[in-house]
């Protein structure tokens, strides 16, 4: 491919209200802190991407990290893979975990977006695939049986064939009661996933997994600390093939290590932590070799492209964290998400980006 050079780089922090605030065992996420990335290339083609920062507290630090990268970007090749390789080498001694790795992944995705716009093609096509309708599950936080039944029913009526809820209540019986209630609400034909967000110690995780195993859940996500691969391997033996993890594993090397020790039955890379599309493709190859199903973590628009070229694709997580700052948010159709283009298929709603500026 004929790659241009990077001519400009800009980032903007925003905090976007969530239509459905997320409550987890670690606290509530009422809004979505995002870093919006714009990379200008020759021919006035600008690529866009965004990075989810988890908490607005780190947005200023993320902006500072991004600003420091400008000298490593402007004037260099706009090839996404070349850029990622160069930045990996540049920061090898430091390592790419943390905010630096997240920003670099965002840069890589913005470059794919720019390339797709330059060629008039979606990223999925550039990666050798075609857009396909990927089944999506609707992603909830901790639900309240007294308030949330209508929302869960609406998800099923909208065509979602999967729904995820978060667990980690003070007592295991509360977890079980919520799962039983949710199953009644969504019905027998809807997959029900549960997510602990790393909130349990290994012994408590074993106790709760044993109780959950007979309640018809599709997967049990991150019961213990993501980096504790030994404990993941230990609790996996009780999960009956339903242990899900991977959103907090860093870059393909992290996936290689985790899969080598048998840390999960299922995996769900996060594009911002796995190294953008380039890192995703590498991680997906590792999962294919291990015959492991691959789902996505957030970033609906970009994940639709990544999953479409994933041989063992499973589910796309539908959690709209950026819709208010997008001109045309990507919405599900009959419970499926299909990649849009050119590029990633995102354009900023500039008025909203200014309104929600952090």
Description of the molecule:
With 358 residues, the protein is of the alpha/beta class. 38% of the residues lie in helices and 20% in strands. It contains 13 helices and eleven strands. Strands 4, 5, 6, 7, 8, 9, 10 and 11 form an eight-stranded mixed beta sheet that branches. Helix 1 crosses helix 3 and helix 3 packs across helix 11. The longest helix has 21 residues. The radius of gyration is 20 Å and the shape is globular. The model has no long low-confidence stretch (mean pLDDT 95).
Strand content: 15-25%
Largest sheet: 8 strands, mixed
Give the topology string: H per helix, E per strand. EEEHHHHEHEHEHEHEHEHHHEEH
Global outline: globular
Report the count of strand segments.
11
Q: Which range best describes the helical content: under 10%, 10-25%, 25-40%, 40-55%, 55-70% or over 70%?
A: 25-40%
Secondary-structure-based class equals: alpha/beta
Overall residue-averaged pLDDT value: 95
The N- to C-terminal Cα distance equals 37 Å
Question: What does the radius of gyration come to?
Answer: 20 Å
Helical segment tally? 13
Low-confidence stretches: none
The protein's oligomeric status is: single chain
Summarize the structure.
With 358 residues, this protein is α/β, with parallel strands linked by helices. Helices cover 38% and strands 20% of the residues.
Would you spell out the secondary-structure blueprint of this structure?
Elements: E1 6-24, E2 27-41, E3 45-52, H1 59-73, H2 80-90, H3 99-119, H4 123-126, E4 133-139, H5 149-157, E5 162-166, H6 172-186, E6 191-195, H7 202-212, E7 219-221, H8 229-236, E8 243-245, H9 251-260, E9 266-267, H10 271-274, H11 276-289, H12 300-308, E10 316-318, E11 336-338, H13 350-355
Parallel strand pairs: 4-5, 4-10, 5-6, 6-7, 7-8, 8-9
Antiparallel strand pairs: 1-2, 2-3, 4-11
